[in-house]
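Q: I have 293 residues here and want to know how they pack in 3D. Can you give me a structure?
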Amino acid sequence: MTIKDTVTSYDNYQDNVIIIEFDRTSLYELKNFAPSIPSRFDAAILISISEGEMEIQIDYVTYKAGKNSLTLIMPTHITYFIKGHGDLRGWVLAISKSFLETLSYSGGQQQQPDVISYMQFKKNPLTYFSDIEYKSLYPSLDFVRNRMRQHAHLYYKESIKIALKMFFLDLGNIYLSKREHFTTPTLSRKEELFVDFLSLLRKNCKKQHDVKFYANELCITTQYLSSILKKESGKSASQWIQDALMIEAKGMLKMLRTNVQQVANELNFPDQSTFGKFFKKHAGMSPMAFRKS
């Protein structure tokens, strides 16, 4: 059975945003979304069930997702699809990590995620909605899908990003009305260090590129810091710092009044050449080529 045999619609934007509506089968048979061993996805994945039931293991806890439910799988989650029951129907929205990062910008300014909300979703991945709440998501999802199908739009990518932001605003509105049903996250010591690291990174990433700085601020070794981050997020400390720098760099390069030398200075690189090599290594193109794109 191929994926075409199990879906009623399938939209894909450069493998960065994928919307699938499935019917007459279980997600257990959708091999692209159902690894045979516990795995981490390189994307944020929302799985919505309108009919039937499925069992899914997230961070080694088994959840039963049924009618009017939404499961949010983050890149940090370890996920394993166990089995499906009944005539399973629903939809999947998958957004790559790299594309998800581009949604955190508005007017050239990075919008940092709420860490506590992140922990709440990490510890509460499955939510059930009322019929009205569940059905209210469809217009927002259809708006994203319609944007993805307008390939000739002169602002194609930006229109998809705006549509996704609107979808998440509508989804967030529903979640906030149900926040009393969330389990208040009790953070372990490692999770507290993860939260503290992210706070330090937001404040210092432009000037501090050395893992040792963050480890010293947290009073732990660089090796311990990286092991914590790897466990909690799947990324090492150096990867977090590099990704934060790339987010900042891309945002500034899109500001027309900022030249490459100014970006290099702002991000505390010794010179424009060093910054250019760093950017090309992680973006696959030069800063000027990125700006023109």
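Q: Anything worth noting?
A: Residues 31 and 141 are 23 Å apart (CA to CA). DSSP finds eleven helices and nine strands in the chain.
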